[in-house]
Amino acid sequence: MTDLFPAPPVPRVPVRGGGTFPVRRIFCVGRNFADHAREMGAAAPASKTERGQPVFFHKPADALVTGNADVPYPPGTQDLHHEVELVAALGQDAPAGELDPARAQALVVAYGVGLDLTRRDLQGAAKAKGLPWDTGKGFDHSAPISDLVPVADVGDLAALTLTLAVNDHVRQHGALSDLIWDVPEILHELSRLYALKAGDLVFMGTPAGVGPLVAGDRFAASLDGVVEMRGTIV
What's the per-residue H, E or C state across the chain? Predict the structure, then answer.
């Protein structure tokens, strides 16, 4: 059967050391740092036994921006916000059924750093009406991402921190040890809802300090010197 039009290319993220990572889906985790949950007006768990369930949402795979390219200011908003995040890249399919957290780490082939760009005014308006807030999260160019770094070259995640600077001033800084749900736990929770596959990316949530970006702003996101991403809002 002949396609009606040429199939769009599969989005790909460069991998340090060679090759690319073809992207299937982008899963995102909301409220995965207690300080960010509080700054957004949500309750933060006092301990892991009080965590409840993680919040998940999606971005389209073609929302990725790679290669430190410029990021267009999106239409429909007057309040674009930055959220710096660890990104986990899955290089294997999960076995059928609920994923054992002890086996989940083996699915991860690489890590990167990314931005979950958010049209905060659209998200807030939807929340206030009890409506889905997809338009606040899943828009074009909403997921700038660094190159991916193989797991073996990253080391102990719990010892690393995320940092975002805008126009050379630090806006966000958070320790990955403060994640409410770590990577294996999130993969376990996702597996209860979705069939995880090679090519999936998971944006793991942001620490406190989210704030606005305007045209002309320069940003630099880093994972403790392991990997860095830069860009400009245009």
Answer: CCCCCCCCCCCEEEECCCCEEECCCEEEEECCEHHHHHHCCCCCCCCHHHCCCCEEEEECHHHEECCCCCECCCCCCCCEEECEEEEEEECCCCCCCCCCHHHHHHHEEEEEEEECCEEHHHHHHHHHCCCCCHHHHCCCCCEEECCEEEHHHCCCHHHCEEEEEECCEEEEEEEHHHECCCHHHHHHHHHCCCCCCCCCEEECCCCCCCEECCCCCEEEEEECCCEEEEEEEC
Question: Domains, the chain, ranges and CATH?
Answer: 21-232 (3.90.850.10)
Q: What is the model's pTM?
A: 0.95
On whether the CB atoms of residues 148 and 112 are closer than 8 A, the answer is yes
Joined tokens for residue 212: 């606005």
pLDDT tens digit string along 100-135? 988 999 999 999 999 999 999 999 999 999 999 999
